[in-house]
Amino acid sequence: MRSINSAFSLQALVILAVFLSAGPSATAVGDSAANLKLVAAAVDAHYNHLRTLEAEFTEVYRGLGMERTETGTLWLKKPGKMRWEYRSPKEKLFVSDGRDAWFYVPDDRQARKTAAKKLEDERSPLAFLLGKTKLEKELRGLSLAPDVTPLAPGDVVLRGMPRGLEDRVSEIVLEVTPDHQIARILIQDVDGAATEYRFTEQKEDVAVADGRFEFKPPAGTETVEGGLGP
Q1: From residue 192, how far is each of 15, 50, 82, 151 by CA, in Å?
Q2: Taking the CB of residue 88, how many other CB atoms lie within 10 A of it?
Q3: Are 163 and 174 in contact (CB under 8 A)?
């Protein structure tokens, strides 16, 4: 997440690549459609049974003539709890208990708070890691993306337009491992900027206490309500 508000202010439709200049055969189209449904269904089944997830993440933002890379640890827990601990290059925290969401940067001595329900649309691309998965419903025009090089051999790359975010998001690209884990989410902005999340060391259904998703501003910290951002 670059700024919590701007991280998902993304949009502008990207044209899908064709397999051959003359167009794929009818058989190839059928095979691709069948494979797509199998991959999507497998991802849905994998994540929808999970109660918790822990993973290391790398976030890369590219836009406005700059590139920024941040790393940290992510914890997710049903229903709607999440904690993003950024370690590098600067410590910061985004945490939600499902009711309230907080963004805190220790160096700024400021904590920003908003109702979690107000984040739902902006953060919906990450619902795929929250056990709400239904890829063919969430992503309009879901298709295979053979023009996008996967991070690892054997991974499958999908793309689609997130419903309800058409005015901000051009497309979302998902990279799926042979074990049906989501290894990468790439969110394309309307202004050409992009935010990419890579997930490694995923640990599923580990014990995560509810207290990890609670936040109390340290003494001397200014609290600002009504919006999140840097």
Answers
A1: 14, 34, 28, 22
A2: 10
A3: no
Q: State the CB neighbour count (10 A cutoff) for residue 59.
A: 20
Q: Return the CATH fold of 6-11+28-220.
A: outer membrane lipoprotein receptor (LolB), chain A (2.50.20)
Q: Tell me the backbone φ, ψ of residue 117, rounded to 5 degrees.
A: -65, -25
Model-level pTM?
0.80
CA-CA-CA-CA torsion sign (116, 120, 122, 126): positive
Name the residue ranges covered by the structural domains of the chain.
6-11+28-220
pLDDT tens for 98-155 read 889 899 999 999 999 988 877 754 555 566 676 666 888 888 899 999 999 999 999 9
